[in-house]
Design goal:
The chain is α/β, with parallel strands linked by helices. It is built from seven helices and 28 strands. Helix 2 links the parallel strand 4 and strand 5.
């Protein structure tokens, strides 16, 4: 029996909901707490005893290997498999099967590349082994499950159904949702149809269940966040810095702020709420930044106020400009004395003149 399971990381998505962050960078490579988000996932897998990971890439696939190489810097052996055409979650898993080393009965971990979680990976593998399941799923409980597929289980944790996003209160039969981490028996991966798009959530899992396979759920309601939206991504980065989300890969002490070595912050600036200032970024005098990320080479001028926002690489935020819940793309310029709020997005290389957008005090 393979004691240290290998893993597949699904990192092929286009990250459409995260644009403009993902116009030039695949979602798993967008920095969270100062390093590409994928670094946190790899480091947590390694800490749980995983040594071999296959990355299933597609969108902007060429950026992963130059950054991570063979994985030796993280104590891992990494391999890369690129989908020429998007194959969905199940198709991506099947597409990398030839790179796995496990025997037919051995466990293989599978992680979605956009989930920040405190999941006890070893406990999930242990549950899989002790239950004798064909597939084991990490489940988490959420207050409002309407945006998710529901996964009810019986008293022993065995999955009884996969229910699409509920539309009415009567359809909400559980608060348990699929949290995006699985352990597959290797032979189940080999049974997924090859060479075509397959969704594990909508096709593989329901078909296994109807065929009488054993699917086991393990509820682990530690920290869990889907980083699919800009607001969630910014929050996840801040939670990593604050120590609310666990990761051995945060490059510095946890606390209110993380300033990477070549970032420069004026003495009168105030950084709070898990704010990150990346390499070569500059924060000017009297700027106030809360719960936000300033990516590499960006400039925040004097007196700017930034809250729950992300400033892209090489972007510039003018003096006294206010950003709240905003994403500014790489290389964009937001001139001085602007005020942007509530989900506004400034595209890469866009230029917003001084004073172009203002909110009146009664809004």
């Amino acid at each position: 029996m393979n004691l240290a399971p290998e893993a597949i990381l699904l990192v092929g998505g286009k990250g459409t909901r995260l644009r403009p962050l993902t116009v030039r960078t695949p979602k798993p490579m967008v920095p969270a707490a100062g390093v590409p988000f994928l670094t946190h996932q790899l480091a947590r897998a390694r800490a749980a005893g995983v040594e071999h990971i296959v990355l299933a890439t597609s969108y902007l696939a060429e950026v992963f290997e130059p950054y991570f190489g063979d994985g030796s810097a993280l104590g891992l052996h990494l391999e890369y498999v690129t989908e020429e055409e998007p194959l969905g979650t199940g198709g991506a898993i099947r597409n990398v099967a030839s790179r796995l080393r496990s025997g037919p009965e051995d466990p293989v971990l599978v992680f979605n590349g956009d989930i920040l979680t405190g999941l006890d990976i070893e406990a999930l593998v242990g549950t899989h082994r002790s239950s004798g399941a064909d597939v084991s799923l990490h489940l988490t409980r959420v207050e409002d499950p309407r945006a998710f597929g529901l996964v009810p289980t019986d008293a022993t944790g065995r999955v009884t159904a996969f229910l699409e996003k509920p539309q009415t209160p009567e359809e909400i039969v559980t608060d348990q949702i699929n949290a995006g981490a699985y352990v597959f028996r290797r032979s189940v991966i080999d049974s997924i149809p090859a060479g075509r798009p397959v969704s594990v959530e909508r096709e593989t899992f329901p078909e296994l269940l109807s065929a009488g396979a054993h699917l086991q759920g393990m509820v682990d309601s530690t920290y869990w966040l889907d980083l699919g939206t800009p607001h969630a991504f910014v929050r996840g980065s801040a939670d990593l810095v604050l120590g609310r989300a666990p990761s051995p890969a945060v490059p510095g002490r946890r606390g209110d702020r993380l300033v990477l070595p070549t970032g420069r912050v004026a003495p009168g600036a105030k950084l709070t709420g898990g704010t990150v200032v990346c390499e070569g970024a500059i924060v000017g005098e009297d700027a106030r930044i809360d719960g936000s990320t300033v990516l590499a080479g960006a400039v925040v001028e004097a007196g700017a106020v930034i809250c729950d926002s992300l400033v892209g690489a090489g972007a510039r935020i003018g003096a006294r400009t206010v950003l709240s819940g905003v994403v500014v793309g790489d290389g964009a310029v937001v001139g001085e004395d602007n005020e942007l709020r509530d989900g506004a997005r400034v595209w890469c290389d866009a230029v917003l003149p001084a004073g172009a957008v203002r909110f009146s005090s009664d809004q």
